[in-house]
Amino acid sequence: MTPTYYLLLSALLFSIGAVGVLVRRNAIVVFMCIELMLNAVNLTLVTFSRINGKLDGQVMAFFVMVVAAAEVVVGLAIIMSIFRTRRSASVDDSNLLKY
Amino acid sequence: MAGAAWLVVAFPLLGALILLVGGKRTNAWGHLLGCATIAASFVYGLILFFSTTGQEEAARTSEVSLFSWIPVDQLQVDFGLRIDPLSITFLLLITGVGFLIHVYSIGYMAHEPGENDRRRFFGYFNLFVAAMLILVLGNGFVTLYLGWEGVGLASYLLIGWYTDRPSAATAAKKAFLMNRVGDVGLAIAIFIMFKVVGSTQYTAVFDGVANGAFSSGELVALTLLLLLGACGKSGQFPLQAWLPDAMEGPTPVSALIHAATMVTAGVYLIARSNPIYTASPDGRLVVVIIGAVTLVIGCVIGCAYDDIKKVLAYSTVSQIGYMILAVGLGPFGYALGIMHLLTHGFFKAGLFLGAGSVMHAMNDEVDMRKYGGLARIMPVTFVTFGLGYLALIGVPPFSGFFSKDAIIEAALGQDETWRAWVFGGAALLGAALTAFYMTRLVLMTFFGEKRWKDIKSSDGREFHPHESPSVMTIPMIVLAVGSVGAGAFFAIGDTFTEWLAPTVGVLEESHHHVIPHAVVPWLTVGLSLLGVLLAWLFVGRKRVPLSKPEPVPFPVRAARADLYGNHFNELLIARPGTWLTRALVYIDNKWVDGLVNGTAALLGGSSGRLRRAQTGFVRSYALSMLGGSILLIAALLAVRFA
């Protein structure tokens, strides 16, 4: 089992997440795709930690998780409040902040 | 005696201060104070004169340093007075003739509208005389410059005296501006002196000339720049156009400006700078050319005018031309130029005062075509004017004969034959023309039929000519006596040239004569009589029409238009100046402002377009972030593996 497969998997996950962010309109789904990308990055960090035999990457992955958890809290709250006022969770509907 | 010489300047300056600051409460006695200050200066001038005449030649020159005026590092200008024969001569002329004109003004300005006016007039008059005295008494070029500008200011105030006349305002402005052109020359000349010798005092500069501190190029530059200044102040070609327009002022102003003070400043400047001019024959040639050109054009234009004051003004232009010609001859002519200046001061002041007296009698009418037959009605004016006239056209033994004839002889006695013929010829031609226009003036004014009988003056009043009051006629009589006797007094026995010798050098006699020495006076007088005869043929024996004859041949048209001097200035200086300013305004508006405004518009426009990228769609932002990241990573990889 070479680490390359882990890296390929994480690249795949990241790509799925990125495409999801770009093509989906539902804010919840976009949010989940972001989580997917974050976790793909976590997987990369852990893999390289394993390859290099150092713990730096593992520690970094924990940090990412903490930040992701905080981000989920704030992000879900924003989505909730937008949904309450506009009765829609579509990211394309909330486009008032523009030129 | 010279130690208290500052009093001479202080009297009229104090008079001007009291009259201009004192206001209404000096109205009652203002004119008397104005005359008294000038009289005091004149008396002090006489004391100075008599205290110097008896002394040795070297002792006649003294300098008084009054105070340190501009002490700036290397530039140390002391305010001091120089008392020498030249400055005493001018001092006496200015205060003497100036005093007579002041007295005359008491009568002439008595009927001025506005109760303050006569007092203010005397204030300006005193200021004028004070400035002129600073000009001639200063011991350095910067002091001279102070007086030079002061005279310019006072002349501006006096020429524009009739503030309700737009023409007077224009004339004052014109005089001021054209003087400024000359002043630039004088200022640059002073800069050069300071640069080369580090001082602007006469003695230091002239010592520098004697020691060879100036290169020949600098000397020529100095002569030409000083000449430019002289041309501006003295109304010489090509800056002569302001002088006839200055007739817009009251007649005593014309008399003061044209006879005793302002216009003589140019001649004074050249005579004072005689070491510089002696050292530069090339510069002197230019001076002679300017003098000859001016004296001829002044005469030619004078023949064509019907305005009595303008004729006299052009006569002044041409007589100053004689003086400039004389001082341009160098050691042969400095003293002669100053002598003509003195005699001219007498007879021209007398002529102007006479013209003022005539105008006074004729409701301020200046058109000679409306005069005629005034000799019987105004006998005193006629006789004094006639004596001045005889002096001006150079009839012996009146004063103009001695001084003008001496200049013509000197002009004919130049070493180069062509110069003698050209400039001597111009001077002789001028003598004949002078006789012509002055005879025309006298015939039209005092003889012939009384053309004013059946017409009204331009302000609608009928003419009731009368002799002027004695406060006006007495100065005229005194000046007439001067016009008769001054020339003989100065010239016979070379009294005057010897008196001036310590300042301008001993007058040299030429031994080169294109026309025999003894013939010249006869020739001069003969040409003058020819001019008189021609004037009688053209004007005296015919009826003078009330309006100008039209059409006239081209030379007369040209002379009536000042030989197109104004057109020339307009075409050569004013128009290109206007174009230049317009071009500059265009460049400023379109290019400079265009650059600034264009930068702002470019930034504003492009940011307006860039703004469109902010669509508000989160997903497009996400796409651009992704794209950007991919580009960055691709670039990094490309650099890494290249």
Automatic annotation (TrEMBL), chain A:
Pfam families: Oxidored_q2 (PF00420). One of its GO terms (biological process) is ATP synthesis coupled electron transport. Gene3D superfamilies: 1.10.287.3510. It is found in: Cell membrane; Membrane. The chain crosses the membrane at residues 6-23, 28-48, 60-83. GO terms for cellular component: NADH dehydrogenase complex; plasma membrane. Keywords: Cell membrane, Membrane, NAD, Quinone, Translocase, Transmembrane, Transmembrane helix, Transport. It is an enzyme of class 7 (translocase). One of its GO terms (molecular function) is quinone binding. It is a multi-pass membrane protein. Its EC number is 7.1.1.-. Coiled coil: none annotated. It catalyses: a quinone + NADH + 5 H(+)(in) = a quinol + NAD(+) + 4 H(+)(out). NCBIfam families: PRK05715.1-2, PRK05715.1-3, PRK05715.1-5. NDH-1 is composed of 14 different subunits. Subunits NuoA, H, J, K, L, M, N constitute the membrane sector of the complex. HAMAP family: NDH1_NuoK (MF_01456). NDH-1 shuttles electrons from NADH, via FMN and iron-sulfur (Fe-S) centers, to quinones in the respiratory chain. The immediate electron acceptor for the enzyme in this species is believed to be a menaquinone. Couples the redox reaction to proton translocation (for every two electrons transferred, four hydrogen ions are translocated across the cytoplasmic membrane), and thus conserves the redox energy in a proton gradient. Belongs to the complex I subunit 4L family. This is NADH-quinone oxidoreductase subunit K. It comes from Herbihabitans rhizosphaerae. The lineage of its organism: Bacteria, Bacillati, Actinomycetota, Actinomycetes, Pseudonocardiales.
TrEMBL record, chain B:
GO terms for molecular function: NADH dehydrogenase (ubiquinone) activity; NADH dehydrogenase activity. It comes from the Bacteria. The chain crosses the membrane at residues 6-22, 29-50, 88-109, 121-138, 144-163, 184-206, 253-271, 283-305, 312-335, 374-398, 418-443, 471-492, 519-539, 621-641. InterPro entries: NADHpl_OxRdtase_5_subgr, ND/Mrp_TM, NU5C-like, Proton_antipo_N. The keyword tRNA-binding does not apply. It is found in: Endomembrane system; Membrane. Keywords: Membrane, Transmembrane, Transmembrane helix. GO terms for cellular component: endomembrane system; membrane. Residues 69-122 form the NADH-Ubiquinone oxidoreductase (complex I) chain 5 N-terminal domain. One of its GO terms (biological process) is ATP synthesis coupled electron transport. Its main location: membrane. Residues 141-425 form the NADH:quinone oxidoreductase/Mrp antiporter transmembrane domain. Coiled coil: none annotated. It is a multi-pass membrane protein. This is NADH dehydrogenase subunit L.
